[in-house]
């Protein structure tokens, strides 16, 4: 019996515009201003440094780490607030959450740092639909590529893996890894590049599949 539905955050519930502006526009502008270099050079430099760390390390997701590493004086929290206007959900998200919220406990399990998650949930007024919000990088100091992360979530929620459904856009982190633990997972492929029994193209299709699974 399914008791819990877990959602990834970026590119699942939220469009990536906000995060992209923070990392690819805002931070380079601050770096260029404080280091007195050309903006395009700052962008290229930071992209190289992001790649050096890579998404397999928790530092990659940590805005405070980058400000500290480059000894930037600007307040990183102000940077998150500056681009708040760009936060946007996908069109179907709110209505799907509103319906699923009446049937299941909903949680967020994301690689994103909690600082980003809380700003986005506050701006979109979605926080009320989720009983818990978990950031793998903030709460567990892990990236969501290990089964241990999902196992810890199940333990904290006091459920067995087969009582949980997870959906996200990353084929490895959100689909392959949780399936190894016995969690029913869906790969959200909004670009519609793949096909499969557990591949969906938006959350309305995901909701339909959940209804089919729980009825059967």
What would you note in describing this structure?
This protein has 216 residues and is α/β, with parallel strands linked by helices. It folds into two domains: 4-15 and 87-215, 3-Layer(aba) Sandwich (Rossmann fold), CATH 3.40.50.1000; 17-85, no CATH class. It is 49% helix and 12% strand. The chain has ten helices and six strands, in the order E-H-H-H-H-H-E-H-E-H-H-E-H-E-E-H. It has a six-stranded parallel beta sheet with strand order 3-2-1-4-5-6. The protein is elongated, with a radius of gyration of 18 Å. The mean pLDDT is 95.
Short description:
By secondary structure, the protein is α/β, with parallel strands linked by helices. It has helices at residues 17-35, 39-53, 63-69, 76-82, 93-100, 114-124, 136-139, 147-157, 171-181, 203-215, and strands at residues 4-7, 105-110, 132-135, 164-168, 184-188, 199-200.
């Amino acid at each position: 019996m399914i008791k819990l539905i877990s959602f990834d955050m970026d590119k699942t519930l939220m469009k990536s515009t906000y995060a992209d502006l923070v990392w690819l526009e805002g931070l380079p502008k601050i770096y260029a201003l404080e280091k007195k270099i050309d903006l395009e050079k700052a962008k290229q430099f930071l992209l190289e440094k992001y790649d050096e760390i890579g998404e397999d390390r928790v530092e990659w997701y940590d805005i405070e780490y980058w400000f500290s590493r480059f000894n930037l004086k600007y307040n990183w929290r102000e940077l998150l607030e500056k681009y708040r206007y760009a936060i946007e959900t996908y069109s179907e998200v709110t209505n799907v959450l509103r319906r699923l919220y009446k049937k299941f406990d909903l949680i967020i399990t994301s690689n994103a740092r909690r600082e980003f998650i809380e700003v986005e949930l506050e701006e979109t007024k979605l926080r009320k639909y989720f009983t818990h919000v978990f950031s793998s990088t903030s709460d567990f100091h892990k990236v969501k590529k290990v089964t241990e992360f999902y196992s810890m979530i199940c333990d904290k929620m006091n459920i067995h893996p087969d009582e949980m459904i997870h959906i996200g856009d990353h084929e490895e982190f959100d689909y392959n890894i949780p399936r190894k633990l016995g969690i029913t997972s869906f790969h959200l492929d909004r670009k519609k590049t793949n096909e499969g029994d557990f591949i969906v193209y938006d959350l309305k299709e995901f909701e339909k599949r959940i209804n089919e699974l729980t009825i059967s």
